[in-house]
Specification:
With about 325 residues, the chain is an alpha/beta fold. The chain is built from twelve helices and five strands. This is ABC transporter permease.
């Protein structure tokens, strides 16, 4: 009994620590919120409907539109006829063989592509009562993006995480270790220190993005040197703005724990509206207030100048905040 009471006391102590520690709470809460977002998408609560052309030629699929709220299938005799109607449909589903389907999508957003892929997979399984593996090949029609749907999303998520979460924690650690005190007596200006810190984080984000691209360039035939060069300014600008945000968080946080907690919250608020901007007008409105929205669209080569312009506006707005935050820490120390 004595050992049991000891174990119960230790458990109580740990649980109290867990619920008082902001970092642990954030780590627990954010995945829950993220799962709720995607569950809402999957259940169709946002009432998104896509018009998909269904090729009836040599097609064993018989689909009743009344069974599916998310997708409205429009039948076409052949692929050529369906492509002639691309101005009013979002994609084309074509039966190729017993276990192979082609889904041609009309230049949709990466998040929409992932959602639509899931819907189509479920429909094929339920309609044809599939018990064997099947292959659903997705191709984009007239897409300007050099990336497939997953690469652009991973680039956005990774670059933002390095800038916001990693750099904020690194700068907060330097504050905790009193590293900044040594800089105050060194012959270096505030601008030089901030520039070096942000450039270092930006280089780290760019290197990571390059690794992601190199790992995928051999698998994605649409990736070309020209298209990668077009996206380079977007990646650099995105890495820069996210590192500025991370530096502000690190400077204004009182500890590493506080910095990571705040960075995780801000990361969630900035990145997810951008990823889900096409899901509902509300998310699009919120997304337009974040740099992640323009970063993701820029990666899709969707009006690069327009998206770079808005990222630049965020940089111009946040640089004075960064300098003010650094000066505040400088004089308080």
């Amino acid at each position: 009994m004595a050992n049991l009471r000891i174990i119960i006391s230790l458990i109580k102590k740990d649980l109290l620590y867990f619920f008082r520690n902001k970092t642990i709470l954030i780590v627990v809460i954010l995945p829950v919120l993220a799962s709720i977002f995607f569950l809402l998408i999957e259940t169709g609560i946002f009432q998104i409907q896509y018009d998909i052309g269904l090729i009836t030629e040599n097609n064993p699929i018989e689909i009743d539109n009344s069974n599916y709220q998310e997708i409205n299938f429009i039948e076409f005799q052949d692929e050529e006829t369906a492509r002639d109607n691309l101005n009013r449909i979002d994609g084309i589903l074509k039966f190729q063989s017993d276990n192979r389907f082609n889904l041609y999508l009309n230049n949709l957003d990466p998040t929409e592509i992932l959602i639509l892929e899931q819907y189509i997979n479920e429909i094929i399984i339920s309609t044809m009562d599939y018990t064997m593996p099947f292959e659903l090949n997705i191709e984009l029609i007239d897409s300007q993006s050099p990336f497939n749907d997953l690469i652009s999303l991973w680039l956005a998520v990774t670059v933002a995480m390095i800038g916001i979460v990693v750099i904020s924690g690194d700068l907060a650690e330097e504050k905790d270790n009193k590293t900044l005190e040594g800089i105050y007596i060194a012959p270096i200006s505030n601008i030089l220190f901030l520039s070096s810190k942000i450039i270092s984080g930006t280089i780290l984000a760019i290197i990571t993005a390059i690794i992601i691209l190199i790992a995928n360039i051999f698998l994605e035939s649409s990736l070309t040197i020209y298209s990668l060069l077009l996206t380079a300014p977007v990646i650099i600008a995105g890495a820069l703005i996210f590192n500025i945000i991370g530096s502000i968080i690190g400077l204004r946080s009182k500890s590493q724990s506080a910095a990571r907690s705040m960075a995780t919250i801000i990361y969630f608020l900035i990145v997810f509206p951008g990823l889900l901007a096409t899901i509902s007008p509300t998310f699009e409105l919120i997304g337009r207030l974040t740099p992640a929205y323009y970063f993701i669209n820029g990666l899709q080569l969707d009006n690069i100048i327009y998206n770079l312009f808005f990222i630049s506006i965020f940089i111009v707005i946040l640089v004075p905040v960064l300098i003010y935050s650094y000066n505040e820490v400088y004089y308080n120390e």
